[in-house]
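Inputs:
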Amino acid sequence: MAWYGLEAEKYDRIYKDKDLLNRILKYFSPYRRKMGIVTLLLTLTAFTYASIPLLTSIAISNLETNREPIYLVFIIISIFSLNCLAWIFNYFRQKYSSMVIGDIVLDLRQSANVAVLDRDLSFFDKNPIGKIVSRMNTDSRDFGQIVELTMQVLSSLLMIIVLLVFMLFINITLALIFMISIPIFFIIAFTYRKIARRMTLLGQRALASVNAYVKESFSGIQIAKTFRQELKLYEKFKEVNKQSYDVNLKKGFVLVSIFPTLAATQGIILALIVYFGGNFVINGQLSVGDLYLFLQSLSMLFFPLLVIAAFWPQLQLGLAASERIFALIDKSPAVVQHDDKKPELKGKIEFKNLIFHYDEGKEVFNDFSLIIHPGESIAIVGHTGAGKSSLAKLLARFYEFQGGNILIDGISIRDFDLKAYRKQIGIISQTPFLWATTLLNNVKYGCDSATEEEVMDALDKAGGADWIKDLSYGLSTYVGERGSLISMGQRQLIVFARTLLQNPSILILDEATASVDPFTETRIQDALDKTIKGRTSIIIAHRLWTVRHVDRIIVLDHGKIVEEGNHDDLMARGGKYAGLYNTYFRHQSLEYIEKIKKICEEPEV
Amino acid sequence: MKKNSKSFNSSPLVEFSPETKDRFIKARQKGTRQWILAHLFYKSNKYYIFTVFLLTILTVNLTSASMIVLGMAISEFLDGNNSNLMFYVIVILILGVSGPVLRLVNSALREILAQRLERDVRKEFFANLLGKSQSFHDQQKIGEIMARTTDDVRMLNFMVSPALSLILESFTAMIIPIIYVAIFFPAQLLIVPIIFVITFLYALKDYIHKIGPVTGIMRAEFGQMNAVLNETLTGIEVVKGNTQEDAELKKYFGKAKRYRDAFVKQGYIQAKYLPLLLFAITITFGLAHSIYLYTQGVMSIGQIIAYLGLIGLLRFPTFISIFVFAIVRMAITSSQRLLNFMNEETDIDENPEGVEKLLDGAIKFENVSFSYDKGSSVLKNISFEIKPGQTVAIVGTTGSGKTTLTKLISRLYDVNEGKILIDNIDVREYALESLRSQISYIEQDVFLFSTTIFENIAFGRVSSMEEIEEAAKQAQANQFISELPNGYNSEVGERGVQLSGGERQRVAIARAFLTDPRILILDDSTSAIDSATEDKIQRAIHNILKNRTTLIITHRLSQIRWADLIIVLRSGEIVAQGTHEDLLKTSDEYQKIFIKKFDISVDQLLKEGEKV
């Protein structure tokens, strides 16, 4: 798939060939000595392999002229030794180069990883994770393959050149026939590649539609079974499968025809060489040994030429792959710290005439100001797009803002040591993220030294730890990828426990909207209660319970504060907040629950 | 008696003839090789194989013959005889071109064979999957099924073309030149090539033995490396929030280092590929031997060149073997994965001669216990009773057994102990078809097929536009559907992604209105973001509950509050059951939900209830 439709992405830079080559060489430079050895071995291999048909042809020529047998024995021993040497040279060449390539790819991956982890979140918003992963892992692997391939191609090229030089000395006509054949091979191979590429793409698309149909069929298998509609699915499947068969068969025909076509070309050239060579031999202008050299070269060159022709486009792709990795490494993060202050935080937060946008021209905040006192709990409410999450993310220093300032305990957020700062900030995002490891490790994340008792204690505070006992392996239960093996509510409890264990001065919480069973919900309310107590808390609230329990509600609308106060006061005022309540919170009230039956029985308005 | 009609597999749907099907099923049980063979020799495939075989032998013969002709030509040139030059050139041209032409035909045939194999195996596999029970599908990840139906099946294609055909060609290219040597040259010239073949096979076996595991390790390490990086980046907010960048770097580096080590090891093994050396030595010895015979006056120079040409044909198997066997190995692994799926049996007996009746909808659980695959029990000693038309709310934490409980009713699974009665008849006594057709299930994450809304609502029963609209109205879906650009003919996109969760749920409810099941199971765990949507969902559910027995798995207090019966599950056991008022009085856990959420006392709560 890596071959098609790779569109240029945001962080692509176009390097000049020279710069790109320099960058690549820079990665080779720590392995200079080994690369020197590889190059030497590569050259030696090429020369040795080229000398073997030469020596053979000399031996045959000698037969014609009836030279001393001892001379023949010497040549044969030389051929034998050279064959063994060539293998040994190649053995060491491959060994060294795989070592060098392995190390370089590792270096590339590491520097790419360092660079990626250093990015702020705006980078991850713009670049899907799948693409970053494939750049770091697949592109670097492809790069490694290209290096190996380049070496093989260079070795073949060198061998061809050496042989050609000899041929030119022996007989110009035959050498010219030979040289004409090279571009013909290339033209055929390139033309085929073009067609083959298009056909392969079509084939992959056809298979992809089979794949999509299989996905759909078995995602809906329960419905199909309930309604007894398997036949319907099978009939459609047959069509899709047939289509894939037709397209892929055509693709197959194209792909398998390249080799015979090249072989037929080789056959024609062989006949030409026999015709001209035969005439020369008969006229005494050429020895049979030399004719043998031409025949032998023709069969020896077939494979290397095929390799070069087939892999030329891949070489370009490899360069593109390396360019993509370098682009990934080179981009600089937008969030930059100006100082490395590491004070203990009390938790006073001040937004001062803040200006912020993700994309130019779409202001999220324009002159936004707000003061939050140490220990105060704040609920932020508002419609989607009001700027609620942006506020939280700026506070976590995930994004850079464009104007104004954010002061924590009177110090600009840009002047902290980022790690020391974040250690004192607890962040709970809307979708709880868990690592594919045990429950214990998940609570301990970021706090490695915590003991099992401390973990249990944190869980106990976060809504009670008794549910852990119901799990088959207690704290050692494996939670699955992203925590998929435990329920959404339990994931939230774990994240609360994680935060409590770190005991941050400031809590930023984006309340989950996913529904949770009422029992777990009760626990989450407990956990929230304990977590916000005594620390500055900023909650993006979605639950009625939360807005009723915080010190102050901030109503945001298009990046501006339109109302603030507590729940009862704001309700009494009957303004924006009351409207929001009616839109988002009304159905969570006891009143609604008690009245719903009656509402449903009334005719619709 | 009860006929075990195992559904789809044995149904006439699949166009394989009964004998073939029997053969496939038997071959599946015998193992990978038998099964692959059964497919290779299925129908006209065997003629293709036969032709490919013949053509391969013919092609190699032509190449070998051209070597002999070349030798003869050179001998004549040496004699200074030019009268036959044109003749030789033409013969060489014909041989040199007809060989590739035959190869072209050959390749086309093997390609047809390969693609047919892929097509037919995929059909067999897909049909087999459709025939599996729901319990089987519940345990499968879609990704796994997809990987098998596309990639693993495709490996069988690659196994035929190029792998098996190249192996065939390799063997032919090793045997036929040697036969030519035997015919056209002194017998002692056989020694070198025969020794080569023997040592080559040994060296190759050793190579395959070594490279296989390393390649496997490399692939696994690459997967690990991907997984680790993917996880880190997915959780990047958590990494940064907890300042764990360094730990994550170390984690990735560890994996990347392991991959590097496997890569280097593979490089070492590849570098040591011995057959290349063997081939080079063979050519040298062949040269020495033939020159020796020349000096003895037994051979001509032309014959030396012909002999070297024939031995040169051994180059092809030497090179090609580096990778073809790896493909065969992968194909066998893939087949194994396919067979593991197909050989798994479904254990629900369809009982086609069982009871068929219109259900009233009375449900009774009597001491039901259940576990999946003999694991720890998911449900323990469950007993309760539902009268026809009642609404039951099932509440509990995830993993308490709520979903499993509902799946036992329509026999997606069978109980291990106790029994479930519908209208006082054990569910196992019913004809499965009749039972299931009267029980509808609306899942938590509603699945829609990627077709129009109309088709989706009409999925269970062919219906007119008026009926569809009426159902949609009842399900509170009419409004949003008519606001879509193409109304009922709007495409919903893959899995219904164009619609929100709440909208998909209401389409599913509309579907249920049309089929009008006697028993409805509604897994209603989605939440509405806003109150207006909540109003709609409430009305839709209210409407669908009427006149049928309904079990709702729900988080909605409003549904729980008004259910005729609430069943509270915890770790597979019923810890409380009764109405809202009952539970407020008897269950501390239940009380706490309301007290905590609304800051209210139980007495006040009970009073609220009376007010309504």
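The CA atoms of residues 293 and 299 of chain B lie 6 Å apart. Flag for discussion at group meeting.
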